[in-house]
Amino acid sequence: MSIRVEKTFAALFALEDLREIYRGSLPTGLDADEEQAFRAKIADLKSLIADLESDRGTPRPSKIAGTLDVRAREEQFINIHPIQAAGRLTPAARKALISYGDGYSTCDFCRKPFRLDKITRPGIAAFHADLAKFVNMDQARVVPGARRGFQAVTSTLVGKGDPVIVSALAHYTEFLAVEEAGGVVKEVPLDAGHHVTADATAAKIEDVQRETGKTPALVMIDHYDYQFANEHDVRGIAKVAHQYDIPFLYNGAYTVGVMPVDGKAIGADFVVGSGHKSMASVAPSGVLATTDEWASSVLRTTAMVGDVTSRKFGIKEVEMLGCTLMGGTLLSMMASFPTVEERTLRWDEEVKKSNFFIDSLLAITGSQVLSEYPRKHTLTKVDTTGSFDTVARTHKRRGFYFSDELSKRGIVGEFAGATRTWKLNTYGLSWKQIHYLADAFTEIADTYGLPRTR
């Protein structure tokens, strides 16, 4: 870790120690011992600032609570990890996490009806309305990750033995959500380009009806899948689903928060997004949005009454288990939201950056793109069996030589040791970083004598 990055974290931790002094004091102010501790910590902080200014100093132990490493990946490296790119917190989200990290911090001003989406200080109620508008749906709820959005819908609509249509590229959490509800997944096969089409979906529904005598309870399809990040015909698939009177769940784990999403234009009955994957939010976080038609079902309130106490909690929503995201998780999502809204308008630029890098990679002879090309997304699956893997076959470090070379150039996030098929994501990188990334891959190829077309 560079000395400036190390000292930056040390200064941040010193400020937290200052906060802790106030947390243990009386509202009337610091006593003599606390004042002495405060001044000692200020002196320490001044020393750290001096080290930062001079770019020198003695490194301090970089463990939190004695065992946890400081995570400085985003400060030290260009990170191309496939699932981390769009979940990087904004500065506002990091500040919100510092301020609202306490467990039930969102409940400071919770009043009747005692429900998360009704809280007005901070503006959580308004945020729910903003989320619904953001994806052009009628109502929205925050949930602990996209998977809990799937779960809320399947537990509402799917009964024992009910078939549910998913993609042959569906995420495992879609499978689990269906299984937990007692349903059975039925996969739509892919075409030659690894796409799910409307025609194939219609054919699968017909097959399922013939085989089971049942109409599927739900069609659940990713806009961009997690394996190839190929675009699938969600509008056409939604239309097909409705022709069979089947509700359609749009899986926007890789779209909501990075590109414009219009749920009603798509024809979605449910839109699910991932906060920690695509909305610059702390994990686990996500969003479930729905139309008014389905809100009374998936957002139903409890009717249960205690047999001894006669207690009832009618305002609590069953699928949400009352309240969902509390504390820093939710506030990070709220704090990032203005940036997230704005950045979706620059999606075309992000795709241009992705294609610039991929074009550079393809210039290294033997490299291939397994995803659709040109790219329509920043997540890409590549095959370097014919390029970087040819070196790994005889290198003493095998595939790890490639990770070594990238790390030496300040690049992380590739699958360690992978030189055949692997995934990367360029989302959020500046053009300066994109050029650096492309040049780094070219340098590695040249170092090992791999031919290039340019």
From TrEMBL:
- What reaction does this catalyse? O-phospho-L-seryl-tRNA(Cys) + hydrogen sulfide + H(+) = L-cysteinyl-tRNA(Cys) + phosphate
One GO BP on record is:
translation
Question: What InterPro entries does this protein map onto?
Answer: PyrdxlP-dep_Trfase, PyrdxlP-dep_Trfase_major, PyrdxlP-dep_Trfase_small, Sep_Cys-tRNA_synth_arc, SepSecS/SepCysS
Q: Which cofactor does it need?
A: pyridoxal 5'-phosphate
What general EC class does the enzyme of this chain belong to?
A: transferase
Q: Where does pyridoxal 5'-phosphate bind?
A: 146-147, 251, 274-276
Supply the EC number(s).
2.5.1.73
What GO annotations for molecular function exist for this entry?
Sep-tRNA:Cys-tRNA synthase activity
What positions are modified (N6-(pyridoxal phosphate)lysine)? 277
Keywords from UniProt, A to Z, are: Protein biosynthesis, Pyridoxal phosphate, Transferase
Highest rank taxon of the organism? Archaea
Q: How does it assemble?
A: Homodimer. Interacts with SepRS.
Q: Which NCBIfam families match?
A: PRK09331.1 (NF006810), SepCysS (TIGR02539)
Q: Which family does it belong to?
A: Belongs to the SepCysS family.
Q: What does this protein do?
A: Converts O-phospho-L-seryl-tRNA(Cys) (Sep-tRNA(Cys)) to L-cysteinyl-tRNA(Cys) (Cys-tRNA(Cys)).
Which PANTHER family does the protein's record reference? CYSTEINE DESULFURASE, O-PHOSPHO-L-SERYL-TRNA:CYS-TRNA SYNTHASE
Protein name as annotated: O-phospho-L-seryl-tRNA:Cys-tRNA synthase
Question: What taxonomic classification does the UniProt entry list for its organism?
Answer: Archaea, Methanobacteriati, Methanobacteriota, Stenosarchaea group, Methanomicrobia
Gene field: pscS
